[in-house]
């Protein structure tokens, strides 16, 4: 059966650990100048309907430095704008490719595409999930703290795709996840009940007060207040999230060894200040670099038999 990664739910906890170990091993080889050509001649196709700096380019860099090559096309160029059916696009494109990454608005579109694809399909961000970001964040936290279990990740902001994927990641690895969120922007109740059904020991909660939430944080995490596609709602969101900015005053309430993370792109001056982004507790660039190491680990884990 073709394996896909549309959500972290496509992995079990052991597979997730295996994948992290593969990425960590390839990263340490990469740092000592070794680029094992594990996937010579393999083709990655990337199908995106939203912009991307990290995801698109880290995936392409990853396939190239494993010995393969990448093709990039927008969903419109691929014909998903009504030029032909989803089945026809997925069947044909997957016949040219060894792995496909997709960035879409609709999460269901990735799931439906995967059903017709003869090669693995990886979610490169949808409105509901961002699994490769969450995998990257796990690798980064593991590097920083030495372990995941017991880590308290406090996400200050919107209950969005990144927050939901981190909540799943936390449940799968024994981390505690707290979302500090204004009323009306929480993670959906149906998502939470599904999560606790799958992972009954999940330690996930949502609270209204960021100041209280960060007092026990090992990681303070934030993301944009308006995700791609929500630009028209930006002004309303700026008001709703005004008290949820991660700034030096908020970081002072967290333990002094707490780290700051952001998946990027950041809106400096809104959800986070320059002082925090560029401060000593910030690990955002290590996190961004790790997108590529996770991509290499993921390709190797999925495709090297
Ligand atoms: N973090 C992330 O997915 O960044 P891009 O939108 O630039 O890919
Ligand atoms: N929540 C953001 C993440 C960007 C990487 C968005 O969906 O736009």
Description:
With 305 residues, this protein is an alpha/beta fold. It folds into two domains: 8-130 and 291-303, 3-Layer(aba) Sandwich (Rossmann fold), CATH 3.40.50.1370; 133-287, Aspartate/ornithine carbamoyltransferase (Rossmann fold), CATH 3.40.50. The protein is built from 13 helices and nine strands. The strands form two sheets. It has a five-stranded parallel β-sheet with strand order 7-6-5-8-9, with helices on one face. Helix 2 packs across helix 13 (284-303) and helix 6 crosses helix 13. The radius of gyration is 19 Å and the shape is globular. Norvaline (NVA) binds next to helix 7. Keywords: Transferase.
Secondary-structure topology with pairs:
Layout: H1 13-31, E1 43-48, H2 54-65, E2 69-74, H3 75-78, H4 86-96, E3 99-103, H5 107-116, E4 121-123, H6 131-145, E5 152-156, H7 161-173, E6 176-180, H8 189-198, E7 203-207, H9 210-213, E8 219-222, H10 234-240, H11 248-253, E9 259-262, H12 274-277, H13 284-303
Parallel strand pairs: 1-2, 1-3, 3-4, 5-6, 5-8, 6-7, 8-9
Bound molecules: phosphoric acid mono(formamide)ester (CP) and norvaline.
Residues 125, 160-162, 223-224, 227-228, 263 line the site of norvaline.
Protein name: Ornithine carbamoyltransferase
Keywords: Transferase
Pfam families: OTCace (PF00185), OTCace_N (PF02729)
């Amino acid at each position: 059966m073709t394996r896909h990664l549309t959500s972290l739910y496509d992995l079990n906890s052991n597979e997730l650990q295996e994948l992290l170990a593969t990425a960590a091993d390839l990263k340490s080889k990469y740092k000592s100048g070794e680029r094992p050509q594990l996937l010579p001649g393999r083709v990655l196709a990337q199908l995106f309907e939203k912009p991307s700096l990290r995801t698109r380019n880290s995936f392409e860099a990853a396939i190239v430095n494993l010995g393969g090559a990448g093709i990039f096309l927008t969903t419109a160029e691929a014909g998903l704008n009504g030029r032909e059916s989803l089945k026809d696009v997925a069947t044909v494109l997957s016949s040219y490719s060894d792995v496909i990454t997709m960035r879409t608005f609709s999460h269901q579109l990735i799931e439906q595409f995967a059903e017709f694809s003869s090669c693995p399909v990886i979610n490169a961000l949808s409105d509901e999930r961002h699994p490769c970001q969450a995998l990257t964040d796990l690798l980064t936290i593991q590097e920083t703290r030495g372990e995941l279990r017991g880590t308290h990740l406090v996400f200050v902001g919107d209950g969005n795709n990144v927050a939901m994927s981190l909540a799943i990641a936390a449940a799968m690895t024994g981390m505690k996840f707290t979302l500090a969120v204004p009323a009306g922007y929480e993670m959906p109740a149906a998502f939470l009940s599904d999560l606790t059904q799958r992972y009954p020991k999940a330690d996930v909660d949502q609270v209204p007060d960021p100041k209280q939430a960060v007092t026990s944080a090992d990681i303070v995490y934030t993301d944009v207040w308006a995700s791609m596609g929500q630009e028209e709602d930006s002004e309303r969101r700026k008001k709703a999230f005004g008290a949820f900015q991660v700034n030096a005053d908020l970081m002072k309430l967290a333990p002094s060894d707490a780290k700051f993370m952001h998946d990027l792109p950041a809106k400096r001056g809104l959800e986070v200040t320059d002082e925090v982004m560029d401060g000593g507790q910030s690990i955002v660039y290590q996190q961004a670099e790790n997108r590529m190491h996770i991509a290499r680990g993921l390709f190797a884990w999925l495709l090297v038999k």
